[in-house]
Amino acid sequence: xxxxxPHPSRATQHKPPLSSSTAPTGSMSWSTSKKNARTALPVxxxxxxxxxxxxxxxxxxxxxxxxxxxxxxxxxxxxSQCIRGAMLNPMKRNxxxxxxxxxxxxxxxxxxxxxxxxxxxxxxxxxAKNVPFAIDETPESEKPGFLDRDYFRFDDSAEFWxxxxxxxxxxxxxxxxxxxxxxxxxxxxxWAYHLGRxxxxxxxxxxxxxxxxxxGNSPPQFTSQILATRNGGYLKxxxxxxxxxxxxxxxxxxxxxxxxxxxxxxRHRQFDPRYLATxxxxxxxxxxNILKKRNNPDExxxxxxxxxxxxxxxxxKTFHFQTDGWLSSRSAxxxxxxxxxxxxGKQDAMQRTTLVPxxxxxxxxxxxxxxxxxxxxxTGRFATFVKDSFPEIDLTVSELSPxxxxxxxxxxxxxxxxxxxxxTPPTRFVQAAGEDIPVSDASQDCVMSVYLFHELPxxxxxxxxxxxxxxxxxxxxxxxxxxxxxxxxxxLDPTLGNFEKLNEPW
Length: 506
Hints:
Helix content: 40-55%
Structural class: alpha/beta
Strand content: 5-15%
Largest sheet: 5 strands, parallel
Radius of gyration: 22 Å
Order of helices and strands: HHEEEHHHEHHHHHHHHEHEHEEHE
Low-confidence stretches: 1-47, 49-135, 231-235
Strand order of the largest sheet: 7-6-5-8-9
Mean pLDDT: 75
Distance between the termini: 40 Å
């Protein structure tokens, strides 16, 4: 059979031209000269760096005066990882591996949409989750990231992140990289916004740690270790990861893979001081509660408040020690803020890596309004980025938690009312587990999963893969984005087991 040909004008339908007409209301015009943009960027960088340096110095001095700083501890906050995107296509066997950010994201093309093939496709996933945490002793040839090379074609970004070491670049080098990436004022705005997010969420995390100590939920020694880790390697390491993550995102935007993030628009509610203050205070309180359980795991109650058989056994736990697990509006309201703290403000950028293989799918499909299903969509934030770049899709969002599903509906409604640029088919919302999706056989052109599989035990992962194979049309595409595996980033291998301390059982 012949490969699918792009729909007429599809290649340009969703790729915005670099013109001022695509700039959101209230944002800078792209007509500003390259010279002006390059001149403005060092100012943003210097102001941002000065603020961070002042804050870090203040906290370091505070720690030095109040208690001795013990040796540095490697702390794993899921350091910007996100693996894979699996693209299933019964007519191909080659697969692309895409690594965004410090993330590892894979676009895996070429697995037949049949249960038997789905079983064999899970071998790597099983090994990723079942390797013992004496990770340094795992032979390179047995690491899932290495085994992937037998099945998948690696994107340049995957090769880049494999051996990337955060401490390799000096601040001047990073500033030069940012300046080289700026060719118009929209690019400068991108950096100003995302470096600001980085500083804000790092500050939120530090505030949460200090508040937890003040409330007696975290011992001074733990606070010292966290801040010492951040102070000792912070300006050298974390900014490198963040900047490289956004360099890849900006490259893909320039290549027309997806649009500039709509939430850069100053009209977005995240710029409202009242909204920021309320959400940050909730997150700081939640971080204090999480650290209390993290530091006293034997005393932590990981059961959820509701007892029923509607949800699978593995689901009725407080993942990450978050209050109520997935089963409350409180949890749904602060989830995005908490994950941005964990990933130093680049969670959105990591998730947007999924749009790279999705853009390829959109280029190749013949459907005018392809049917797309996102399973385990959480708060629905990623779904709004999908719709913003590809408004023509017929999107179904599924989520098992009714609280998170309601949040997803509210998030999508907010985007539609404030940022939608054109007519778009209505989004459907379905409450369902990934193992039992209430849609017809062979009905979906594309299925996406972002950050689901690392929360599933092996038997549930297999069930979800079989269900995805059932609902996809012949030749359909499955894009899977999830946590980094052993061998995806060599520098992170020694610390991948640390996140289990935050109640990540699988």
